Amino acid sequence: MHHVFTALGKRASMDILCNGILSQLFDWGHGMVLLFGLDVFVMVGIERIEIPCLSKISRWKNGLLNIHMEIVGARFKFELRIHFTAYLVFTIIETDVAAMSLRIFIIAACIYTTSSWQHWEYTSFATDDWRDTWGFENGPRGRQGHSMVVWNHSKVILFGGRDNEIHRPHIPRTYDLMEEEGVLHFESYSDKPLLTEYDDTCVPVMECTNLTDAASGNNESCSYSWQFVLDDVLDGNGNDRLDKEESCGFAVSALLYNDIWVYDLDCERFGDLPCDNDGWRVLHPGKRYGGCRDDEGGGRVCDIPSERWGHGAAMIDANTMVVYGGYSQECEDYCDDVWTFDFESMQWEKIMAASPPGKRWKFSMVSAAGSDNTLKAVVFGGHRFWHGFANDNLQENRWSSNRTFPEGGYLNDLWTLGKVTKDNSEDSELTNELSWRQLHPKESCVPDPGIAWEDRNNVRCEILWPTRRSGHAVAFDKERNRMWLHGGYATHYPYPSSASSGAGPGVKRLRDKGVIPYAAHTYFLNDFWFYDFESEIWTEVFPGM
Q: Is 181 exposed, middle or buried (0-12, 13-18, 19+ CB in 10 A)?
């Protein structure tokens, strides 16, 4: 027990001997336990108990604190604030004496941060609407090319992605064309397939889930699997599997999602066990084909973003997530649409942002905060259809024409998507709208004096910019107002040789063998860059020798 008495006006500062406290620290692997007691003398006002040695313990972090106060000859009310790294602060609100003695016993169990991966188990809380839409019992299921953002500082939001490939029956059949009141109908002779050699034993396994609260009113949702048919050939080579799929009349199809899931990081949990009564929950079940349909004007109208993967997502303000691009069947290949999801109304909205960057997928997209703490989405790079496949492009003009298709292949352009204030002339109100802005290269200049006197003020300027790529990773550094970039993937076009498809007009090949730049060409990149949002200049960081 340490006995300390110090009174400094209305503030009492208690210095506690560090060697005494440290002797009562018990390290238990993932944290430590602190046991000590002290007698203090306090007065009305803000009282501060200093424990300076705790600030020197680098692994001391937020934990559990249990405090017992024994009153000596007085009654009082108090408020308590705890600063685990250095001190305790409590305020005497009401007392019947000007000063008092307190006996404080403190038991602190503190967990410190470790630098290691943790594998958290989780529980799935799929809704009947989600099961009805996708045909599975639980989610989110395995997927790739999805996006994740953090909402409200503690909730992980997952959107979209691609699941394992699925098999669908695809047997060509004969059709009869019928006209009824001026409308053409196709009627299939299901008993007369064009080909008769399909294996009639290829029957799928059907798995159904009972539904009780689906908005559609369906009582069950079923999924079909032909995987057991292929299990017999999994030990063989790839051709065996292809032969089996062909004999069964299977068509391999990608399963894409447009659902939204949320995981609360602040849920109550112990160790690596699942959250107590919490886990992955459905915020929006999604819709098949995005609920897209033809409108009267001949265009397409969608209720939500169509199923996609390889897209980007970022928070554009505290309660709004923006989704852009990706690969989707509704887009026919790569998408350029922009959607926002409001976490208060739980509604999607399609945004017609001005000057869009165009179609792309496998780019980077991250939220960045400006000097006024307003958020913007930053997009870099990615990939889309190569413009060299246009008929007016070939080797002779170095595939330089963009009349048919915009600059494509692998990209290295940089864009921001943020809110801009516009004056609505109709009702004289200011409105916030999303708008794209392209960030163009700038020269970076440094003094470069020469040997001669007249060259003493020479300046050397150059443009530094990362090369084209997709599949790279970025992170926003709020403290330095920078975006960091590493790696990625890029190939040359035409690919894989200079005579491959696209070397001639359109998608045609050249007759010669061409050149394959293997292995001098680096496909997987290992460079490291940062972009400074104040100077708008890229800087490459080189490894130390």
A: exposed
Task: For residue 22, give the H/E element and its range.
Answer: helix 18-22
Task: Enter the tokens of residue 362.
Answer: 């496998």
Q: Which two tokens stand for residue 523?
A: 């496909």
Which residues does residue 470 pair with via DSSP β-bridges, in sequence order?
Answer: 489
Instruction: Write out the two tokens for 469.
Output: 């790529």
Q: Which helix (H) or strand (E) covers residue 413, if one does?
A: strand 409-424
**Sheet (strand 155-162) strand order:** 124-125, 280-284, 256-264, 155-162, 147-151
192 near 174, Cβ under 8 Å? yes
- Look at residue 130 in the predicted model and tell me its pLDDT: 96
How far is residue 504's CA from residue 510's CA, in Å, rounded to a whole number? 6
- Sign of torsion over alpha carbons 23, 28, 32, 36: negative
Determine if the peptide bond prior to 519 is cis (ω within 30°): yes
Spatial contact of 540 and 464, defined as CB atoms under 8 Å apart: yes
Q: How does pLDDT run across 300-348, given as a tens digit for each residue?
A: 999 999 999 999 999 999 999 999 999 999 998 999 999 999 999 999 9
Tell me the torsion sign for CA atoms 109, 115, 116, 117: positive
User: What Cα–Cα distance (Å) separates residue 345 from each residue in 255, 260, 348?
Assistant: 28, 14, 9
Measure CA of the first residue to CA of the last residue in the chain; give whole Å: 54
pLDDT band at 65 (very low <50, low <70, confident <90, very high): very low
How does pLDDT run across 394-419, given as a tens digit for each residue? 888 999 999 999 999 999 999 999 98
User: Six-digit token pair at 484?
Assistant: 């960091």
- 173 near 193, Cβ under 8 Å? yes
Report residue 85 as tokens: 């790294």
| Angle, vertex CA 322, rays to CA 321 and CA 328, nearest 5 | 125
Q: Identify whether the C-beta of residue 224 lies closer than 8 Å to the C-beta of residue 217.
A: no
Rounded to an integer, what distance in angstroms lies between the CA atom of residue 331 and that of residue 327? Answer: 7
How far, in Å, CA of 403 to CA of 415, rounded?
22
Q: How far apart are CA 323 and CA 48, in angstroms?
A: 49
DSSP-assigned beta bridge partners for residue 72: 101
State the burial class of residue 298 (Cβ atoms within 10 Å of its Cβ: 0-12, 13-18, 19+): exposed
Q: Tell me the domain boundaries of the chain.
A: 2-111, 166-253, 353-540
Query: Is residue 422 within a helix (H) or strand (E), and if so which, with residue range?
Result: strand 409-424
Residue 543: is the preceding peptide bond cis (ω within 30°)?
no
Report the C-alpha gap between 101 and 489 in whole angstroms: 68
- Which residues of 122-243 form beta strands (DSSP E)? 124-125, 147-151, 155-162, 166-169, 173-180, 183-193, 205-210, 220-225
